[in-house]
Amino acid sequence: MPTLLWFRRDLRLHDLPALLEAADGDQEVLACYVLDPRLKQSGGPRRLQYLYDSLRELRDGLDGRLLVVEGNPVDRIPALVKKTKATSVHVSGDYLDFGKRRDDAVRKALGDVPLEESGSPYLVSPGRVTKDDGTPYKVFTPFYAAWKAHGWRAPARTTAKSARWIDPADVGGGVDIPRGDAELDHPAGEAAARKAWKKFVNSALEDYADDRDRPDHEGTSRMSAHLKFGTIHPRTMAADLGGGKGAQAYLRELAFRDFYATVVHAWPDSTWWNWNKNFDRIEVDEDKDAEKRFETWKAGKTGFPIVDAGMRQLAETGFMHNRVRMITASFLVKDLHLPWQWGARWFLEQLTDGDMASNQHGWQWAAGCGTDAAPYFRVFNPTTQGNKFDPDGAYVKRWVPECGGDDYPEPMVDHAAERLEALRRYEGVR
Description:
By secondary structure, the chain is mainly α. Helix content is about 50%, strand content about 5%. The protein is globular and about 70 Å long.
């Protein structure tokens, strides 16, 4: 009897445990993807473009044997099960709140047909690494030690040849994959992900620990969007990491990704609400003048070169260097005194790699209200940060060519004064 392999955040054919389970016993497998209309409401144009391009590549990798349907998975997956007489549905586990609620609803709608979870988008699935008393970690450093001690499996040996695929034409009801109208600054899909990773390992991994904070260098892997959509699994990447300084620095970043997913798994409302509830009392600006300041920040016209360079890179490419993400976030919450949620929402709209767990808790780190948050009294000086991490001004010159000229705006705030104001506000919730 056939089975269903329902793709979600795992748009690849290599290292896919759910594929092994779906094909176990030599069953025929229907590969399917459900275009949920809710994705269009929350995805952002570049993330949708990455999705569409990756789906086309996945379909090509299966010689066209990917059925793409549109609608609510709660309706569409049971309908496909009924049409194909499938005995089970196989997925990679989803541990964020939206995905968990969706899967619970689908599982209920399937009745006696099981929804089988195999693997997840993470090296270690959320909930696996806990403190001795079974509670989740709130601090990264002990989590990291326990995470490394726990370890992870070797990559699963899967390819397009791992299953006998059902022809979607025999099932019917499919829709065309949308073309999209956004431009990506690097190609999507599994082949691009594997090629980019190999290039990084061969050319930049050794120096990663030193170069990763320099936006003027090509020192980062640019794998975040590929990880977001699962066109490569972090297991595949971790298998290439040895004991060198650069490799261990990179492994630590993969651990942070798992940590933030674990935090959101344990505290689902922390995607939009302060993880540290004491910060619910902090004074933030939300009036008309605050909205004008927000628009100036979004446009990259703050008069602080490193901030403006980051915001323009984001708007033009859908990517921002991680060090600059921290600088621009600190500026929004501590120089402009705006709610971190405003910035988080804008990032999710613009970023190709926008990930609900990493983005939201990165913002809460900057705002001081999350786990492992920067000390409340730490306020990034954008000028000092720019001088330190872009010492020759190459990054700024690329994105803010008018910097230093008559057309470049004066700083929109006095950083020293706003730092003191931020500290005053933070004292109220300390």
